[in-house]
Amino acid sequence: MKKGKSLSFATIYLLLTILLIGSVLLAIRVGAVSIGFGDMRAYLWDVFGLAHKPIDTVTRGVFLQIRVPRILLCAVVGASLSVSGALMQALFRNPIVEPGLVGTSSGAALGAALVFVFGSQFHSLNNTTIATVMLPVCAFAGGLCTTLIAYNLASVRGKITVATMILIGVAVNALASGGTGFLSYIARDPQARSITFWSLGTFTGADWTSFFIVFGSAIVSILWALFYAKGLNALLLGESEAQALGVNTDRLKRRVIIVNTLMVAVATSMVGVIGFVGLVVPHVLRMVKSADNRYLIIGCSLLGASMMILADVVARTIIAPAELPIGILTALVGAPVFITMLIRQAKSNTGGGFYA
Amino acid sequence: MLDLQDINFTIDRAEILSGISASFMPGEMSVVIGPNGSGKSTLLKIASGEMAPAAGKVFYGDTQITKANGYEAATYRGVLTQHSELNFPLSVWEVIMMGRYPHFKNKPTAHDHEVVKAVMTQFHLHPFRERSYLTLSGGERQRVHFARVLAQLWHKNSEGFRYLLLDEPVSFLDLNYQHGFLKTAKEISRSGDVVMAVLHDINLAALYADKIFVLKEGRLIASGTPAEIITPDLIYDLYQLRCQVQVTEDGFPYILVMGN
Prior knowledge:
heterodimer, A: about 350 residues, mainly alpha, ABC transporter involved in vitamin B12 uptake, BtuC, two-stranded antiparallel ribbon, 16 helices, 2 strands, about 0% strand, globular, B: about 260 residues, alpha/beta, 4-stranded antiparallel beta sheet
C-alpha cells in the first residue's frame, strides 16, 4: 500500500478508467450468450447503420436490449452508491458509515415499494409516469426521511457517537424494511416486486429507461457533490473547526444530505437495496492514496462502477443459468470489511483511527 | 481590537454568560481564566462568531461579527481548539492546506503552496509532510493544527490585524509543548495582532498573559495584569483553595496551592 501513495491523482484516475473499460468489455463478453469482440464491433456498426455483413439478430438483441443497458446500469448504480458512501462518511465523520447502514437505502426502498403497491390505484397516472416520475420521487422522500432521522438522532450538539449512530441505523432499517416487507406481503400486483428484490437487490430488470434515470441522477449529483468536496474535508476536522475555516456547516450538511439522498434513492428505486458498496469502495481508495474528498468522489465514481459491474458478472455466472441476488455477494465481501473496521475503531478509542 | 459589548447567552433559560463587556487589544496576549462551567469556551465561541449571543455585539475593529458574516472573517480570524476529532488518514500537508481553504476557491494557488511550506518550516514539520495525521502523537497533532491555523492567518485584514483565538490549546500537551505553543502565541500578539486564549492553568496564564480576564459563573469579575489579578483572595473566590502567591526572579507571579 505504501507504493500506491506515491502515485499521483492523475495516474490513479487513469488506472481506474482503464479498469472500468476493461470491466465493461469483460461484462459484455461473459453471460448466457457469449459475445465476442468481433460481434460487439459488428453490432455497434449496425446501430450506426454501417454494417457490411449480415448479423445474428437474436444475439444483437441480447447485446443491445439486455446486456449493454444492464452493464451501464451497474456502472451508474455502483458509482452512485460509492460516492454516497464517501459523502456520508464525511458527513458523519466516520469511515464505517454507508447508505445501507444509516437507513437511506431502506427508506428509499420503502418509498419505492409504496409506489409499486399503490401506484396502480391512481388511474390518472399511466405506467410510464409511475415508473419514471413517481418512483424516484417517492424513493427520494423515503430516503430523506430516514437519513434525517438517523443524522439528527445520532448527532448531539455537533458530536456523533458511533454506538448511537449504529443503533439508530439498526432501528431505522428495521422500521423501513418492516414496512417494505409488509408491502410486498400484501401486494397482489405482479409488478410489486419480491422481498428479495428490496433487501438484496438485482439488475435483472435493467433496461434503457432505468439506466437513463439513474444516469441522470448520478451525473447531476456527482458533479454537484464535487462542489462540496472542500467543505467536507474541513468538516472532517469537526464542526467548530470547519466553521472557523469559513464553512457554513449547517448549509453544507443540509445540501450534502439532499444530494446524497438523490443518488441513493434513485438507484435504489431501480435495483433495490445493495449494501456495503459505499463502505468498501471509499475504504479501498483511502488506503491507496488519501482521504481527500475530491479524490474520493472522482475515484468512487470510477472504482464503484467497475466493482459493481464485476460483482454483477459474478452474480450472473456463478450459479448459471440461475442468478444470485447481487446483495448476497456485496454482503459477503463487505460485511467482513465492516466488522474489521469496527473492531479497529473500537480498539483505537483514544482517537487514533484505524488507518493509523 | 476585538470588542465584546454586553454579551448575554442562555441555554434553556440557564444564564451561561451575562453582561460581559471586554476589549482584547492588538499587541497584547489576552488570557481568559475561570473555573469549569464559568463560560470561558462559550465566550470564545461567541467571540469567534461560531455562536450568536442572545444579546450583545462582537466587533473586530469596525466590523460587527454575526453568525451570518462570521464565515467571511475566516481569512483573518483563526481558532485553535484543544483537540480535533479528525478520524481519517489525511496527510500532514493536506491538513495544513485546509488552513488555506478560506483563501482559494477550487485549487490552491502557488501562493497557498508557499504559505504552507513556510508554516511547515516554522513548525519543523517538513519531515512529516506525507505522514498520515493518524500516525502522529498528540503533541505532533496539535502542532499540525497550530500550523494549519497560522497558514489560515498568514495575512492581516484590511485594517491590519489578525485575530487568533485559542480554546485551551495546551490542555493535553506536555510541558515542552505547552510553553512552546504559548511562546509562539505571544510572539504573534507582539506583531500587533489580537490573541485571545482560554487557559486552565493559572501559572501558565500568569507567565504569558499581558492581560487576564477572570470569569466566574458567566460574569466577568476582574481584569488586569497578572500582578494585579493573581491574588490569594481571587484564587479562593474562584476555586475555594487557599494558596500562596509568589513572584519569580523575572517578576511573574505564580501560585502554590496550600489545600482548603
